[in-house]
Amino acid sequence: MVEAMIEVEVVYATVDRQVLLTVTVPAGTTVRAAVQQSGIGQAFPELDLADCPVGIFAKQILDPDTRAVQAGDRIEIYRPLLADPKEVRRLRAAKAVEAKARNQ
């Protein structure tokens, strides 16, 4: 019996470079396996594909080792945040208050 094949996309971006790969995998392939089969690790050898956080269409997948991909999925590999978003907002608000005080 011939195994059904599906196409998914695997994407990763750094500050200065983006890569989108289309990969054909057997139906039932897990998210993590699809990422590893994509070959994106060759383009970004610094990535730990066995443990990196991933998502599908901007929704994080908490169990990529068991979640099967579906045809047309866009698997996104996330990189660590450089700054805490709450801290950035707090600093921005403090600057706005300071600027407002100077302009009065």
UniProtKB/TrEMBL annotation:
Q: Name one Pfam family in it.
A: Ub-RnfH
* Record-linked SUPFAM superfamilies: MoaD/ThiS
Q: Which InterPro entries does the annotation name?
A: Mopterin_synth/thiamin_S_b, RnfH, RnfH_sf
Source taxon at top rank:
Bacteria
Output the HAMAP family linked to this UniProt entry: UPF0125_RnfH
Family stated for the protein in its record: Belongs to the UPF0125 (RnfH) family.
Q: What is this protein called?
A: UPF0125 protein PMA3_25585
